[in-house]
Amino acid sequence: MKNITISKANPSDAKGIQMLTVESSKGMYELCGWSSKEIEDHFPPEKNKEGAERLRKNIPTFTEDDILFVAKDADDKVVGCCFANRQVNKNTIEAVYVLPEYQGLGLAKELYDRACEYLNPNNDTYLDAFSLNSKAINFYKKQGFSETGKKTFDDRFIGSTGEKLEITEMRKIGVK
Predict the structure, then answer these.
(1) For the whole prediction, is pTM greater than 0.90?
(2) 169-to-38, 96, 103, 165 alpha-carbon distances in Å
(3) 59 in Cβ contact with 10 (< 8 Å)
(4) pLDDT per residue over 41-61, tens digit each?
């Protein structure tokens, strides 16, 4: 991919990562029927600033079992990220975000592959995806994941109809 670099995140990336997660999430919330006003209310500027500051403080505390990769363009703008965690008995993909204008270029795959280098290949890997986000679910299926169940998320994610948003639980079996 032209002029995109992928590296481990550092505290100075926090603001860019926070903005990336907000921008990448807006389309998903629209799919769930949220209005522009609901999305704006869910991501107020002060909440974004607090989130960036919390992330800036947390990045140095990551252990060797936590990995956060960022993808940056030639202008040093964060355009993608992948956060993963390995535990004694399982791996977890916490998030893969790519700005809409960079989707379809293979960046999510590159970020996912880099994270997998840190995961224990013998352990199963788990993740959750919003059920309406068929693009993400299909991406993970191409990486070998299968759907294992559904659940509803906590009260932070209630759609415009008042219903809690459904999550698809997925698993990729390790190489045992």
Answers:
(1) no
(2) 26, 15, 22, 13
(3) yes
(4) 878 888 889 989 999 999 999
Which amino acid, residue 145? F
Closest CA to 79 of 101, 60, 98: 98
Residue 76, domain extent? 5-172
Task: Please give the tally of structural domains in the chain.
Answer: 1
Nearest by Cα to 13 from 66, 63, 82: 82
Report the distance separating Cα 17 and Cα 25, nearest Å.
12
CATH number at residue 122: 3.40.630.30
DSSP 163: P
Strand duo 78-86 + 90-98: pairing? antiparallel
Alpha helices (H) along the chain: 14-31, 36-42, 45-58, 107-116, 134-142
* Contact partners, residue 146, CB within 8 Å, separation at least 6: 170, 171, 172
Pairwise CA distance, residues 84 & 91, whole Å: 7
